[in-house]
Amino acid sequence: MGIGSSALLVSAGVASGLAGSIAGLASLFSYPALLAAGLPPVAANVTNTVALFSNTVGTAAGSRTELRGQRARLLRLAAVAALGGAVGAALLLGTPSSAFEAVVPWLIALGSVLILVRDPLRRLVASRPRRDRIAAGPGHNARLTLPMACAVLLVGLYGGYFGAASGVLMLAVLSLSASAGEPLPVTNAVKNIATGAANVTAAVAYVLVAPVHWGAAVALGLGAFAGSWVGPLIVRRLPETPLRIAIALAGLGLAVSLWHQGT
């Protein structure tokens, strides 16, 4: 891989790390950069998944403040998301992606809308009996109910299979299940770990059986690590409502873009 392609991928990795840790849109920058560097679509997809493992490491390092007291919650969410990621990777390696990709824009759009209307939906969820919710935050038991486990499993499956904007979907799920007083930076940090768990299991499968381009993966991963470390610091300082709206609008923009590409 030439110097120009390596520089492109490192730069795209930084942008992906920032976008992934802040908005759950890492692949918006990384996947097109891999295609521009000359990788065919399948190799670009699996290389992207492997490279973005560094996102999880970077965001965990940069989100230590937000993740304090969340261990039990993270373990439950990560286990379910990882199972989904493994199933998604198996589906990608064994089935054509065309049928699934047809619904991807609608899934991303749905997740974006849920983020926009988070507060009214949170009030609706809060009005239901406590046994129907995930207890979140320090001092709670982080119990994961069956409906929410199914939602996290499906988002993890999507992340392992396709991945684009899986963070938007996971943020939507976690925003509805979190306690009403939980700040967005905390929910966002938990989202990064949950989607990272799905990504890691898929990446392991791809390393073993798929055509990973290691030079591209290393260049992209280095940039992504730097960007994802800085991302939580930015989230910590930005006002919550404008940030949430920006994430949702970016997700809707990506949904429209993918819909046009498929038509």
Summarize the SSE layout with pairings.
Elements: H1 3-23, H2 27-36, H3 41-51, H4 53-62, H5 64-67, H6 71-94, H7 98-101, H8 104-116, H9 118-126, H10 146-161, H11 166-177, H12 184-209, H13 214-237, H14 240-261
Tell me about this structure:
This protein has 263 residues and is mainly alpha-helical. It contains 14 helices and no strands. 78% of the residues lie in helices and 0% in strands. α1 packs across α4. The longest helix is centred in the C-terminal third of the chain and has 26 residues. About 5% of the residues have low confidence.
Total number of strands: 0
Rounded to the nearest angstrom, the distance between the terminal CA atoms is: 33 Å
Per the principal axes of the C-alpha atoms, what is the gross shape? Answer: globular
What fraction strand? Answer: under 5%
Give unreliable regions as ranges. Answer: 130-141
Number of helices: 14
> What's the order of the H and E elements?
HHHHHHHHHHHHHH
Major sheet size, sense and barrel closure: none
Instruction: Give the proportion of residues in helices.
Output: over 70%
Mean pLDDT: 82
Structural class from helices and strands?
mainly alpha
Q: Over all CA atoms, what is the radius of gyration? A: 17 Å
